[in-house]
Amino acid sequence: MEHVVLGKTGLKVNKNGFGALPIQRISKEDAVVLLQKAFQNGINYFDTARAYSDSEEKMGAALHEVRDQIIISTKTAAQNGKDFWKDLEMSLEKLQTDYIDLYQFHNPSFCPKPGDGSGLYEAALEAKEQGKIRHIGITNHRIAVAKEAVLSGLYETLQFPFSYLASEEEVELVELCRQKEVGFIAMKGLAGGLIHNSASAYAFMCQPQFAHVEPIWGIQREWELDEFLSYQEQAPELNEALLAEIQKDKDQLAGEFCRGCGYCMPCPAGIEINNCARMSLMLRRAPQEAWLSEEWQEKMKKIENCLHCGNCMKKCPYGLNTPELLKRNYEDYKTFL
Ligand code: SF4
Ligand code: SF4
Q1: 4Fe-4S ferredoxin-type domain spans which residues (predicted)?
Q2: Domain that holds residue 49
Q3: Which of 6, 166, 211, 262 could form a disulfide with 170 if both were Cys (CB 3.0 to 4.6 A apart)?
Q4: Is there a single domain that holds both residue 243 and residue 295?
């Protein structure tokens, strides 16, 4: 079983991290079974967020009895000190614990620093002093903010999207984290559902240059967990077949594509941008029937009501021209119908 040390935190975690965003979508009973199975099979790192509705509560219910054997990270999207404390106290209560191993600022649009007027970093330091959190981290989708955070020396970990579709600049960021001993937590290792072969995704992360990378797999179903657990017994080899698969995906997904992160939402015209703006990819990379249902036809039709307000473009961390992307995806969608 491979392990990763999260930079200067010294926290030693199983190479399979558990991303607890998707357990929002399943019942509490099922979530408890899933989380306990993960723990019983060696997974010791669980990542959640205050913003993931009842994910923290489910995690608390499943794992409070083994609290001393696991590492928990959660996140706050607070914009000021007052909300920071509100979030932290709530997370502690829901997780049924009196400390968080790693507390992260959740995708802020800027890099919180002492004296920046937000009071966020000061609050985190105070929480650390009080023993309520043990390490301070940051998550982000914007490479500029991520780099600034790593170079600031203020953060012990960075959580950032990383998969085998990563750009050169993103790979450089991973290397920068290694050099600065900042733990690198990889979210979206399956590129938000666009990568279907978990074996190639896992094998990619296990390459020697990514020994310090900790992927957190978003797990919702037992078979998904079983797949990742099976790689602990026998790590998939990055052989010719897997390399060919990776190359094929890279060719298909080259350039600008919507990652489905949803940071551009809500949309005043009610468009479900995070799925509609990547419909062409979904149609080609997943079974089509579900995406062509009446419900989805209605959702796609809403693109006709786009107000061209540009709000989505301003918020997209990948700098995509979202209205244009929606239009292209809608035209393509109609050809499938
Ligand atoms: S530009 Fe169109 S898609 Fe984007 S937020 Fe405005 S209405 Fe929604
Ligand atoms: S358009 Fe940009 S912000 Fe919106 S879901 Fe896609 S990648 Fe995320």
Answers
A1: 296-326
A2: 3-248
A3: 166
A4: no
Please, are residues 18 and 29 in contact by the beta-carbon 8 Å criterion? no
Residue 264 lies in a domain: no
Q: Is 168 helix (H, G, I), strand (E, B) or coil?
A: helix
- For 332, which DSSP code? H
Give me ligand 2 centre to Cα 313, in Å: 8
Task: Please report which confidence band the pLDDT of residue 110 belongs to, taking 50, 70 and 90 as the band edges.
Answer: very high
Task: Kindly identify the ligand whose nearest atom is closest to the C-alpha of 192.
Answer: 2
Give per-residue pLDDT as tens, 23-35. Answer: 999 999 999 999 9
Q: What is the pLDDT of residues 224-239, one digit of tens each?
A: 999 999 999 888 999 9
Dist. CA 240–CA 180, nearest whole Å: 33
Is residue 257 in a domain?
Answer: no
On whether the CB atoms of residues 18 and 219 are closer than 8 A, the answer is yes
* Ligand 1 touching residue 320 (CB < 6 A): no
In total, the chain counts a number of residues equal to 337
